[in-house]
Amino acid sequence: MDPGRRLLVSGLSETELLARIVPLLSVNAGRPTSTLLGPGDDAAIVAAPDGRTVISMDTLVEDHDFRLIRPNGHRTSGYDVGWKSAAQNLSDINAMGGSATSLVVSLTLPPQTPVTWVEDCARGLAAAIAQLGANGCSVVGGDLGAGTQLVVTAAVTGTLEGRAPVLRSGAGAGYTVAVAGTLGRAAAGLAILEDGRPVTDFGPSGEELIDAQLRPHPPLAAGPTAARAGASAMLDISDGLLRDAGRIATASGVGLDLDPDALQQYADPLQETADRLGIDVMDWILGGGEDHGLLAAFPAECPLPPGFTAVGSVVPGRPVVTLASRATVLRGWDHFAD
Amino acid sequence: MDPGRRLLVSGLSETELLARIVPLLSVNAGRPTSTLLGPGDDAAIVAAPDGRTVISMDTLVEDHDFRLIRPNGHRTSGYDVGWKSAAQNLSDINAMGGSATSLVVSLTLPPQTPVTWVEDCARGLAAAIAQLGANGCSVVGGDLGAGTQLVVTAAVTGTLEGRAPVLRSGAGAGYTVAVAGTLGRAAAGLAILEDGRPVTDFGPSGEELIDAQLRPHPPLAAGPTAARAGASAMLDISDGLLRDAGRIATASGVGLDLDPDALQQYADPLQETADRLGIDVMDWILGGGEDHGLLAAFPAECPLPPGFTAVGSVVPGRPVVTLASRATVLRGWDHFAD
């Protein structure tokens, strides 16, 4: 190969590409692992110590869920995409009150994809597992194939460690509504990426907010902690606080009333960036997804566990989300309805 | 909507599309099921009665793994793609000696995809699970999103029911090499599809062979049966007998010698079709994948269980595949090497 040219995936067989990325996925050397049989056979085997496996799946599609290059020149790396794929999948197990045990990952790659991009994607997957604290979890298998567009699909398994799952349907009137993790930061990062101006125009927080969009940090300890503390309903905030709160309301047959004063603490650090972009900061707090924090309802007698902040309460009546008891339709609820 | 126009996925929200397909996925009404929590929350929960979960993943990409329309006008339906996605994933669990417990499925859909295509895909998934006898297995979750190309990724979980997995690495010299299921039929069907002539030119077997390509029937009872009977190495024949036999040879550090006389019984029914296409029928038997039969090695003292046919033996020496003790490179081994 001409050393001046980048090696593309079209220049390698599936076996050769696998041989390059499997070593990059190793995260559990010398540590306890849920993997009983790793990559290399027809299937992998993962421990399910309490006789149940939690399972979910999420897909990232180029030009829909990420853009390789933005108007301001910002490039989304393979590392970013691998990280985000792992993070959003791990978050689904967290939202049930469980801990992730494995990922399987399918990469659909245009032939002109640089091999380094795929290697970076593997590094991002492994880094997210390790740095987000998904102890015992590994990438145990997957699939590689060609297509016209980059598509990354991961399935995640997890264990509830003997506990009952925390569903969306368990909220009751009088319960406290609380959030773990961040709100609005990923949406702010997306707004910066989609703005035409250079990232440096947004000061040091510009890069941090872009990181929140590209490499979200779901609070993976918070899910099991909430389950142990008695959370009765929970989900991960992937589509925005209002929309996801609406899902708990619908599943539980109750209303959720959010407290604007409590939400202000999430808005304040984003105010300056929002002003610069001419955006109402509360649009990010109420409508911005992808931080992958948790929204949970705790019975009034349960003290909130560390990491959770009260942002409202469950109210009897129609399954709608209100803000200080007022309808949220004015806040763009319709935009986020599905 | 104008009743004369087909409803496209771009005309529905994700929630509306889900509401149409989830009911079509139901296969276990009134039957025992491994599903402890089905679709609708952040994740599903599947039984893992022996404390282990087998997991694998396979992706089908439009224009790579299937074509919506062929030169001879043949259309691949959503039902076909759903069936094949389920079948190839279920086969991976079968190849470990296990039984499938769940599928999660991600559909990436161009906006102009007819909703009926997606509904047919769901029906095909459910039909494969039911008709192939994957008892207790259901589609428990997944993801829906937009892209430029149809991509169907499924992950499958399974149980080993307390048994050890049957790996690729357990073949020993003197063992019997045996096949369950069919060989070469899916490859013959693909050759008919890729030929320009109408399917009817190939007689009644033409449609049957196309069915074998589009809706393969992996022998799902055979995997657990082989494991109980003492099979010491096994995989599913997805890339062709020679190539997959080479994987057992490599993993086990032994040679596999195949018996052309034993393989003749698979070739005979395809001879006329091969002649019509001007193809050497043994290319399909040795090189054709996608039937998703099983290739297994049984210690000499184990009687072959029902459904398995001896096709060769394990020999000491280099990890290569031979045909009547002769090198298989002449048979196109290089074409199938990866």
From TrEMBL, chains A, B:
Domain PurM-like N-terminal: 40-159
Binding-site list for Mg(2+) 5: 239
Top-tier EC class: transferase
Superkingdom to which the source organism belongs: Bacteria
Pathway: Cofactor biosynthesis; thiamine diphosphate biosynthesis; thiamine diphosphate from thiamine phosphate: step 1/1
Residues at which substrate binds: 65, 290, 333
Gene Ontology BP annotations: thiamine biosynthetic process; thiamine diphosphate biosynthetic process
Family: Belongs to the thiamine-monophosphate kinase family.
Protein name from the UniProt record: Thiamine-monophosphate kinase
Native source organism of the sequence: Arthrobacter echini
Classification of source organism: Bacteria, Bacillati, Actinomycetota, Actinomycetes, Micrococcales
